[in-house]
Design a protein that fits this description.
It is built from eleven helices and 15 strands. With about 350 residues, the protein is α/β, with parallel strands linked by helices. The protein folds into two domains: about 1-120, Rossmann fold; about 135-300 and about 335-350, Dihydrodipicolinate Reductase, domain 2 (2-Layer Sandwich). Helix 2 links the parallel strand 2 and strand 3 (about 55-60).
């Protein structure tokens, strides 16, 4: 199957904003088996980026397709365009990696996933944190029973977005807050490590900035396996405890050596992203000696690893690490969080009925 792509898989990046530029850099750095096909974005800076990279520039997705299809496309455009552009890719037989959130609603996202399934076109979701080697090591340790049965998890996602961040109007409106922008990543990771979230009870506040969107949220999680969890997220707190500031996977953020996740089990506990494993030496008990074991993982750039995995999926060598359905599962949980905060009650997370059948 890989012979159809010649020596290198060509990947177009659609959208050249902050995240889109990160994808451009990742595709370019991913290795000799991948090449940047083009950049698609109507803005003049995107044309300049394409020129600097020596690749074609197109104002629209349809213009790019008319000039010659890539082997795959990364959709890093505004959220409301994800499904429309994803459907275009599916119709043209182009595998697509869709940035998170996968869609603006579960209903529209399901339409895209069903179309891709029917056409046999791979869809991936840009939850790049799953590609971080830290997560792979944590997943392996949990599955090997290092901490026993998961009982409870806790996540801190505290950071401070400066005032100029909100000069962009949509960031002050519903959908532009830390629940959809930041917490959705954390929910994806928790479901990857701990299993499906069954229900949530959430509280939101916009007391600091007074915008139409939340600036702080606290969420109680109940997992299908009986574990409990909490996520505390805010973009108004100056603090070192967030994935952005602790994972060392994005040079745009000053790195700290703090933790932001704790996962507790019947035989031990795990800190992330520092990968410190806590267990009793022998008999388990609060009066017994407890040891910490540092675990190792590389600091490879997850965006580059994501680009390589996308190329492997395009070639038919691997299944998506984060599929379109995975992206929808994270969005289902976020929709439940928003509904719970609005209604003041516990909300059951909807389930992908097709997977259940």
């Amino acid at each position: 199957m890989s012979s159809a792509f010649g020596e290198r898989v060509s990947i177009a990046v659609v959208g050249a904003g902050v995240v889109g530029r990160r994808h451009v850099e990742a595709v370019t750095a991913a290795g000799s088996g991948i090449r940047l096909h083009s950049i698609v974005d109507p803005a003049e800076p995107a044309r300049n980026i394409a020129a600097s990279m020596g690749v074609p520039w197109f104002a629209t997705l349809s213009d790019m397709i008319a000039a010659g299809k890539p082997d795959g496309a990364i959709l890093a455009t505004p959220n409301q365009l994800h499904v429309v552009q994803g459907m275009t890719c599916v119709a043209e037989g182009i595998p697509a990696l869709v940035e998170k959130p996968f869609s603006t609603s579960v209903a529209s996202g399901e339409t895209l996933v069903r179309a891709a399934d029917a056409a046999g076109v791979p869809l991936l979701t840009g939850h790049h944190r799953r590609h971080n080697p830290i997560m792979g090591r944590a997943k392996a340790e949990i599955e090997a029973g290092a901490i026993g049965d998961i009982v409870s998890v806790g996540v801190l996602a505290w950071l401070f977005k400066p005032h100029e961040y909100f000069d962009v109007a949509w960031r002050r409106q519903p959908g532009g807050g830390p629940v959809l922008i930041n917490l959705i990543h954390d929910i994806d990771l928790l479901q990857f490590l701990c299993g499906r979230v069954l229900s949530v009870h959430a509280f939101e506040s916009s007391a600091v900035r007074g915008n139409a969107v939340e600036d702080t949220a606290v969420v109680i999680l109940i997992f299908a396996n009986g574990a409990l969890g909490t996520i505390n997220v805010s973009d108004t707190i100056v603090a070192p405890w967030s994935w952005e500031l602790t994972a060392h996977d994005n040079p745009a953020y000053p790195a700290t050596d703090e933790l932001c996740y704790v996962i507790g089990g019947t035989r031990g506990s795990l800190e992330l992203p520092g990968l410190r494993l806590w267990r009793n030496r022998g008999k388990r008990g609060w009066r017994e000696p407890i040891d910490v074991t540092p675990l190792a993982a590389s600091l490879d750039d997850p965006f580059i690893l994501q680009a390589r995995q996308f190329a492997a999926v395009i070639r038919g060598r691997e299944k998506p690490l984060v599929s379109g359905r995975d992206g929808l599962d994270a969005l289902r949980a976020v929709e439940a969080v928003k509904r719970s905060a609005a209604e003041g009650q516990t909300v059951t997370v909807s389930v992908d009925k097709q997977v259940q059948q």
